[in-house]
Design brief:
Largest sheet: none
Number of domains: 1
């Protein structure tokens, strides 16, 4: 069984690497064609809310959906199909209504997300936002179809799901970018979201039959009671990134785009390490939880964390030491020149320090979701979000764009440490394996030591102006 799981993980990780490579290629094409400018700032701000909605709400629905769907599947395929139809139909209605409301309020939303934008920037960004709004509905549906495939151990399509979207963005950017500018990116995003749904239909049609059916029962209410804490917990990262972009809009022009490229690069690295692992292990976590086999569950979690540690440590060190070269290789071509590279690589140095924490946190979150405890990760996440906002406001004035990366990395590391501590209390861990986690924590904090020593007095003596700004 372990050999089969290892082979499945290796295969899915290879497929995930292919998908992530197309994502890397997409960002490189966007950077080459559009560079770092007020136009790309407008696009990335317009993309923020749709991205938050499908990354937070859509992904949360997929993650809560899987363990309950598997629970129903263990009883009968018909019950699982009824559950899936009810959730999908409710989500289609709810997400469509939310998208329409966001379209109506788009200028006001852009003003909140980018207070530093002028009238033209708000107009362009809100126009782009209206084009991309319904990507939320499409992506939510895509996540649940992927959950059905995963529960039946069909991991290939979920691993490759981003490829149609990335290829659509690349083709449309190359063909229409020069003529239509950043509007081509917006149309590429909505077409790509639609393609994610279309390509899954042939793979899911023999295990799931769609019906316009809704049956509100205890399992549906259980789904939504578990969903809200997951949404709030997932919102931590997105709110942190939104705060980063809001503060970046007050810095040097192009700072929003630089942060966006950095976040994409960090997520690319994290995805290469963790995505394939999660696709295979999350259904296993859920099944072991359903069976009540917490010994095997804890052992699986420990092995996954060890793998992440061995993979992430060298990646983080190399990325920190060679950030300028990495950003140059990935993005520097066309409109993306030396100035853009220097700004982006400078921010990348500090965001990359939290990548390992992001990877381990994904494993720990899935473990909590598998045992159907979604409230504790949410509570810890909200606390980390408050800390991140405070650190951002404290550090951005002195360290500018680097301060945003420092704050995000510190809050990610602390959040992951607390999740590990409480999960260990919930299901237990092998004491022999804990040394690996402690070694990793030492690795994470060592690169931050020099930075923390420089800003320690700023964190102990709270500036009156910061308090005034918070109030």
């Amino acid at each position: 069984m372990r050999d089969m799981t290892t082979k499945a993980m290796a295969y899915v990780m290879a497929m995930t690497m292919l998908a992530k490579f197309t994502g890397f290629l997409r960002e490189a094409v966007i950077a080459a064609n559009f560079g770092v400018s007020s136009g790309t700032d407008a696009y990335f701000i317009a993309q923020t809310l749709p991205h938050v909605l499908f990354a937070v709400v859509g992904a949360s629905m997929g993650e809560v959906f899987l363990p309950i769907y598997m629970e129903r599947q263990n009883l009968s395929g018909q019950l699982a199909n009824q559950f899936a139809n009810t959730i999908i139909n409710i989500s289609l209605i709810a997400t469509s209504v939310i998208s329409l409301i966001c379209i109506a309020l788009s200028p006001h939303i852009i003003k909140i997300l980018a207070p530093g934008f002028d009238r033209e920037g708000i107009y362009v960004s809100s126009s782009l936002f209206r084009i991309m709004a319904f990507s939320f509905t499409l992506t939510s549906l895509s996540y649940m179809l992927a959950g059905i495939l995963q529960s039946h151990s069909r991991h290939t399509m979920p691993a490759l799901i981003s490829i149609p979207s990335n290829v659509s963005m690349i083709i449309i950017s190359l063909m229409f970018g020069e003529r239509y500018g950043v509007y081509a990116l917006a149309w590429g995003a909505i077409i790509g979201a639609a393609m994610q749904v279309v390509v899954q239909i042939p793979f899911v049609k023999d295990i799931y039959v769609y019906r316009p059916y809704m049956d509100i029962n205890t399992h549906i209410t259980k789904f939504f009671s578990l969903l809200l804490p997951v949404i709030l917990g997932k919102a931590v990262d997105e709110v942190n990134y939104i705060v980063d972009k809001i503060l970046a809009s007050t810095l040097h022009g192009g700072s929003i785009s630089a942060i966006n490229y950095v976040i994409k690069l960090v997520n690319f690295g994290a995805g290469m390490v963790i995505s394939g692992l999660i696709l295979v292990l999350y259904p296993i976590f859920s099944q072991l939880s359903i069976e009540g086999d917490y010994g095997r569950l804890s052992n699986s979690i420990e092995q996954a964390i060890e793998y992440v540690i061995y993979a992430v440590v060298p990646i983080t060190v190399i990325a920190f030491m060679h950030s300028n070269e990495i950003v140059g290789i990935v993005f520097q071509r066309g409109a993306f020149g030396d100035l853009e590279r220097n700004l982006t690589s400078y921010a990348f140095k500090f965001y990359i320090l939290g990548m390992g924490a992001i990877c381990i946190r994904e494993i720990l979150n899935r473990a909590f979701f598998a045992i159907q405890d979604t409230k504790l990760p949410m509570k810890l996440g909200v606390g980390a979000m408050v800390l991140n906002v405070f650190l951002n406001l404290s550090l951005v004035r002195k360290f500018h764009i680097a301060g945003l990366g420092i704050a995000t990395s510190i809050s990610n590391i602390l959040l992951t440490s607390m999740l590990y501590y409480y999960l260990r209390k919930s299901i237990g861990y092998d004491r022999k394996r804990r040394i690996y986690i402690y070694m990793y924590c030492i690795h994470l904090w060592e690169p931050l030591y020099q930075v923390l020593s420089c800003i320690l007095h700023d964190l102990i003596i709270v500036d009156i102006q910061v308090i005034y700004y918070l109030l």
